[in-house]
Amino acid sequence: MVNTVPVWKPAEIGERDRILAAIDMGTNSLHMVIVKIEPALPAFTIIAREKETVRLGDTGPKSRLKDEVMDRAIACLGRFQEVAKSLNAEQIVAVATSAVREAPNGIEFLKRIANELDLYVSLISGQEEARRIYLGVLSAMDFNNEPHVIIDIGGGSTELILGDSIEPRSLSSTKVGAVRLSAEMVTTDPINKTEFASLQAYIRGMLERPVDELLAQLKPGEKPRLIGTSGTIETIGAIDALENLGSVPSPITGYQFS
Questions:
Q1: Measured between alpha carbons, how far is residue 237 from residues 136, 173, 229 in Å?
Q2: CA–CA separation, 211 and 230 (whole Å)
Q3: What is the separation, in whole angstroms, between the first and last Cα of the chain?
Q4: I need a surface site. Which of 1, 77, 128, 246 has the fewest CB within 10 A?
């Protein structure tokens, strides 16, 4: 399953505005964004967003996707389809990442989605996930030909990207995610000092190589700006804003903290 298939195909496309939907099946949440594309500019406008916490990463023995979790995901995808259809989306592009990628029954799950919903999901690699994150950030902000490091902490993996306005110089995806590590390494709540220290040491060890590879792509004198994306970074930003401003900006996009 490497290609996405149109769900609603218009009679004529031409140069008119198009409405497309994109679904990201993450380890923790399923997200959908629906956009209107204006080919003449070219530009796009987000007209709807949907999110549901399904927790595909809450797996059973040997990282197998649980039946109840798959049922929940399929129900969510069906709802997403209805929303997209109500907004006249002509195509849905759907991708699955870490949790499905690593599950022994992941392919069977995608086949079930295709059979039950007529929705075809692309299973993308960690490198491709990082590349798409880079393109997403680049579409939302101007890099001004300066190097930027992007970090995306997901439920199952963390992506580190170095890029400028021209190309991504370094792309990595490491099996360090909030849901994964909580399940595998945390038994106390709140986390005790011993587990916290072990968690820190493990993360540092796992990220050492991708960080070194990223730094090797920096040119002398370059000091890249750090960009954070996704829910974990938003939560850290919200905590920082509450502590320093007394409230959380809405939207929090563009908020800066040290």
A1: 20, 22, 10
A2: 19
A3: 41
A4: 246
Report the SS3 class of residue 182: helix
Say how far apart CA 57 and CA 63 lie, in whole Å: 8
Dihedral, 242, 133, 198, 62 alpha carbons, nearest 10: 130
**Average pLDDT value for the chain:** 92
Residue type, 19: I
Angle between helical axes of 67-86 and 106-117 (0-180°, round to 10) = 40
Which tens digits make up the pLDDT trace of 81-105? 999 999 999 999 999 999 999 999 9
> What single letter denotes the amino acid at residue 233?
I
Q: Which residues have CB under 8 Å from 185's CB, separation 6+?
A: 195, 198, 199, 202
Q: Quick check: pTM over 0.90?
A: no
Instruction: Write out 83-100 in H/E/C secondary structure.
Output: HHHHCCCCEEEEEECHHH
H-type helices in 1-105, by residue range?
Answer: 67-86, 98-102
Residue 54 near residue 72 (C-beta atoms within 8 A):
yes
